[in-house]
Amino acid sequence: MSRKNQKRQKKFLIIASPYSWGGGIKSMIDETIKSLKIINYNYLLVIPKFAANNTNLLEKNYKEINTLKFINFDKFPLIHHVIFALKSMKYLKGFDKYFAVVATSHTALPFVFSKKPFSLWVATSYADELESKYNSLMGDKPARKLRNSFHWKILASIERLVYQKATKIFALSDYTATKIKEIDQGLSYKIDILNFPIDTLKFRPFENKKANNTLIFTGRINDPRKNVILLLHILKKLREKIPDIKLVLVGDNPNILVRETAKKLKIVNNVEFIPAVPRDEIPKLLNKANLFVCTSTQEGLGISILEALSCCLPVVTIACGGPESIVIKSGAGYVCNSTSIMRNKINQLLSNPKKIERLGRKGRKYIKENFSYQQFINKIQ
C-alpha cells in the first residue's frame, strides 16, 4: 500500500490533573491511555507537577511540567494553574483531538489560553470537593481556609470559564453532571456522561471461598472525603451483634488519627489495614469479602464501587453523590441516609448469603452492560 493511501494515525493530546494525586484521577488517566492504545491512536500526555510527589507513571509519551515548588499548592492553587497553563502552551500544536482528564476543570486552562477546541472529562466540582473535605469527621483546615479565601471567587470564575469554552463536557457521573449544571445552567446542552470503563475480565468473581462477615473498602483512607473515621464508628456498633465482624481497609498506610480512633473504639482486632497495592491485586482482595462499604462525604463517582460490583460484591453506601445512581440503577446494594440504616442493611445482608449472591450477580450484569471500553471509545474518538 502506498503512503498516500495509508490511513494516518490520529494524534490525541491529553492534559490531565497530576498523576501523583493517585486515586480516581490516576485511574481516569490510565483508562484513557489504555483506550487510545486499543484504537491505535498516537497521543501525548501533559501533566502538571504541583508538589514534590513522585509521579511513577509507566509511560514514555508524557511531559511533566513543574510549577513552583516553594509555593504550597493547597494554599495558592490559582498561581500553580496559571503557571502550568503558560508553560504547557508550547505542546499544544499539531494534534487532531484535544482532551482534558481532570479532577476539577482548572487543569484544562491551557486549552482556554490557546483557544483550542477541546473536550473535558471531569470528576467533580471544586466547591463540592472542598466542602466534602472539611465537613468530614477527619476535617481539612486548608480546604476550609481556601473556600473562605479572597481568591475563591477567581477560582470559581475560572472553573466556569473552562466549562463555557469546552466544546463538550463529559461528566464522570450523573451527580457530577448535576453539580456542573448548578454552576451554569446554560451548559446543559453540551454535558454528557462518560462512564468509566471497567475491565470485567480482571475485575471478576473468583471461585475462592469468602471469609465470614467481612467488609471491605478500597481507596485513599487518609483522604478526609473518604470519612473512614465514620466507618470505624459503624464497625464498633456492628460488632455488638456480630463479634467476629472484620473490616478490611485497602489504600494508604493509616495516619495517626485513623489508628488512634481504632484503638480508642477498641476495634483494632476487627480492622485490617492493607497499604496501597497494585491495581491488579485488588480483585483478589474484593473476592475475599462479603460486602463493599462506603461512608464518604462526597464521591464524584466511586470507581472502587464499580470494581466491587464487577466482582459480584454488593455495595452498602452512605448517600454521598456519585455512588447513589450506580447502586440504585444496578439494584446491587443500598444507599443509606443515616448510619443506623447502614448498620441495619449490613446486618441484614450478612445474615442472608443467598441475597448477597443475588445482588452480586445483578451488579456484575449492570457493569458489563454499561461500563465497557467500547462505549468509552465511541464517545471520545
TrEMBL record:
Gene3D superfamilies: Glycogen Phosphorylase B
Source species, domain of life: Bacteria
GO molecular function, one term: glycosyltransferase activity
InterPro entries, per database record: Glyco_trans_1
Domain named Glycosyl transferase family: residues: 205-365
The protein's name in its UniProt record: Glycosyl transferase family 1 domain-containing protein
Species: Candidatus Shapirobacteria bacterium CG_4_9_14_3_um_filter_39_13
